Amino acid sequence: MCMSRRDGIIIRRTNTKERILEESLRLFSTLGYNAVGVEMIAAAVNVTPPSLYKHFKGKQEILEEIVNRAEENYHRHLIPVVNFTDEEINDFDIDRFTKIVMSQIENLLHDNVIKSVRKLFIIEQYRNERIRMMHIKNTFENNEERAFIFFSKLIRVRSNKADVDIIHLAKLVCYPIISVIDRCYCDPDFEKEGLTFIRDHVRYIWRNYFE
User: Fold this and answer.
1) 8 A C-beta contact, residue 170 and residue 143
2) pLDDT tens digits for the chain (211 residues)?
3) Assigned domain for 12 exists
4) Which of the 8 DSSP states describes residue 12?
5) What is the CATH number of the domain that holds 18?
6) Distance between CA 196 and CA 200 in Å, rounded?
7) Would 42 be classed as within a structural domain?
8) Dihedral sign (CA 168, 173, 178, 180)
9) Please, what is the Cα angle at 84 between 65 and 203, to 5 degrees?
10) Same domain, yes or no, for 116 and 17?
11) What CATH number is associated with residue 166?
């Protein structure tokens, strides 16, 4: 197995199917989904369209597989957050909490597959209803769900604030972070300032809910 890098996008490639996914993601995230045809993808992979159809029914199936890969990457980066035991959570302090969250954020920022898929979502969300729904699910709903699971455990184990609206807390934490990540994707020079803001935001949440 080898690694391929092109325009900052890295996908492990072992066969034609993986090369199709790599080139499709590159093309979709630079030209837009609607502007890319199967023939263009096949030419980028250096195969014929019939050869491409042996692996995928069409570009919609390619897109869905790319989004699934990005979701797998999200899950891989964020697994520790939702799997902490009560005993581990009870040992948290503000520095441990901050370190854990910032590690997840930096992983997301530097995952080139996730970055390219988010770029595709932003380009196409107003032109393609299916991509708009994918964007809502993967950028907002899934992250809110993970945050809800994590903060439900934290509130139960660490907080004496029995009346906390955990759904609201999950949104309060997630939305500023999502906004900063999106700005960092389109404005790399903002990353240092953005990470400083997220760090301060995370510590503010801890002080107000868990100390």
Assistant:
1) no
2) 444 455 545 444 458 999 999 999 999 999 999 999 999 999 999 999 999 999 999 999 999 999 888 888 877 776 566 678 888 888 889 999 999 889 889 988 888 888 888 888 888 888 888 889 988 988 899 889 888 988 888 888 887 677 889 999 999 999 999 999 999 988 999 999 999 999 999 999 999 998 8
3) yes
4) E
5) 1.10.10.60
6) 6
7) yes
8) positive
9) 95
10) no
11) 1.10.357
Condensed to tens digits (0 to 9), the pLDDT of residues 70-124 reads 888 877 776 566 678 888 888 889 999 999 889 889 988 888 888 888 888 888 8
- Angle between helix axes 59-83 and 112-124 (nearest 10 degrees) is 120
Structure token pair of residue 55: 């692996």
Residue 136 is given by DSSP the state I
The number of folded domains in the chain is 2
> Do 155 and 128 share a structural domain?
yes
Residues 76 and 131 in one domain: yes
Kindly report the pTM of this predicted structure. Answer: 0.78
Tell me the C-alpha distance between 134 and 102, whole Å.
25
Sign of torsion over alpha carbons 144, 149, 154, 155: positive
The pair phi, psi for residue 5, each rounded to 5°, is: -125, 130
Residue 75 domain flag? yes
Tell whether 113 and 39 lie within a shared domain.
no
| Residue span of the structural domain in which 23 resides | 2-53
With respect to residue 115, please indicate whether it lies within any of the assigned structural domains: yes
